[in-house]
Amino acid sequence: MSTLTVAPPRDAVTGDPARLRRALGSFATGVTVVTVGGATPRGMTANSFTSVSLDPALVLLCVGNDAVMNRVLAEADTFAVSVLGAGQEDVARHFADRSRPLGAAQFDAVDWLPGQATAAPVIAGAAAHFECARWRAYDGGDHTIHVGRVLALDELPGREPLVFHGGRFRQVVPQQPGGNR
User: Which stretches make up the Flavin reductase like domain (predicted)?
Assistant: First the structure.
């Protein structure tokens, strides 16, 4: 008795990066700004951020290998992640714009404050801030997976997050009391 195994066509996924991007875009994500302080501060919008562990408290973010922030994170001892809130789409767009100024000047266009544990810039009004020490970095194909140990955090309870879904920024619409359950 023989078993027939049908393999997908060669490069069925990687041969169509636009289709892969569309399919991945069906997963809603939060929107963050990752920052590093020091003599040459840097910020970057990222939506690939998640918790890893509660004990120890670890988070991860993925950064493209060709991004300046990838090199900056590899050399930094600490970094911060600001989880953007509803209404902060302009901040997300600013830190995604490759033509923004370099160094400290890139923070002139946004409200920010120095993190208490790392002095890395954190975005004012964000839903949450995580200040982290570099823990590990892993190869993730065309990205590097950066894991940080959380040193300090802050949150604005009740602050609705900014969300990215289907290639667009969106806001969570709270359900009204007595609505569908």
Answer: 24-171
**pTM of the full structure:** 0.86
What domains are there in the chain, each with its CATH number? 28-165 (2.30.110.10)
DSSP assignment string, 15-60: T-HHHHHHHHTTS-EE-EEEEE-SSS-EEEEE--EEEEEETTEEEE
Q: What token pair was written down for 67?
A: 């991004």
- What lies within 8 Å, CB to CB, of 90 at 6+ separation is none
Which residues, 6 or more positions from 4, have their beta carbon under 8 angstroms from its beta carbon? Answer: none
Alpha carbons 149 and 132: distance in angstroms, whole number:
5
The 3-state DSSP class for residue 111 equals coil
The model's pLDDT over 49-79, given as tens digits with 9 standing for 90+, comes to 999 999 999 999 999 999 999 999 999 999 9
